[in-house]
Amino acid sequence: MQIRVAGRHVEVTDDVREYVQNKVSKLPRFYDRIHEIEVVLDHESEQFTAEMIVRADRKHTFVARETGPDTFALIDMVTEKLERQLIRHKEKNRNRKHDGKSDRANKG
Fold first, then answer.
1. How many Å apart are CA 93 and CA 84, to the nearest integer?
2. How far apart are CA 57 and CA 48, in angstroms?
3. How far is residue 96's CA from residue 69's CA, in Å, rounded to a whole number?
4. Confidence at residue 98, expressed as pLDDT on a 0 to 100 scale
5. What is the pLDDT of residues 36-74, one digit of tens each?
6. Whole-angstrom distance, CA of residue 55 vs CA of residue 19
7. In this structure, which topology does domain 2-98 adopt according to CATH?
8. In sequence order, which residues have a C-beta less than 8 Å from that of residue 68 and are 6 or more positions away?
9. Least buried of 17, 20, 39, 106, by fewest C-beta within 10 Å?
């Protein structure tokens, strides 16, 4: 899994980069087919924007974006959003394969 951290109009410090690495490294627990994670931090006027793009198998792309004054809080919020998206996607795939009906129940 490849992790990229970039900054637009803001320099990404080592502390922020390390924090992002720690938070993002937990995402494969929710969906193990992640290939690449890109985190973009932006600064406009007095607000920061954190955007996280997760690319998984079969060209699935998950995106989350938050705006606020605290970079670390934004990273937490964006990571939580992506966790929910990945869990929902995984459950949807699991439920599609098994619709919950048993073949034995239908035969009898």
1. 14
2. 30
3. 40
4. 67
5. 999 999 999 899 999 999 999 888 999 999 999 999 999
6. 20
7. Double Stranded RNA Binding Domain (3.30.160)
8. 47, 48, 74, 77
9. 106
* Interatomic CA distance for residues 57 and 86, integer angstroms: 12
Separation of alpha carbons 49 and 20, rounded Å: 14
The residues spanned by each domain of the chain are 2-98
Q: What is the pTM of this model?
A: 0.83
pLDDT in tens, 11-35: 999 999 999 999 999 999 999 899 9
Alpha carbon separation from 70 to 2, 38, 43, 66, 74 (Å, rounded):
25, 19, 11, 10, 6
Q: Which of 42, 23, 30 is nearest to 3 (CA)?
A: 23
Helix (H) or strand (E) holding 88: helix 71-97
Both structure tokens of 19? 């924090």
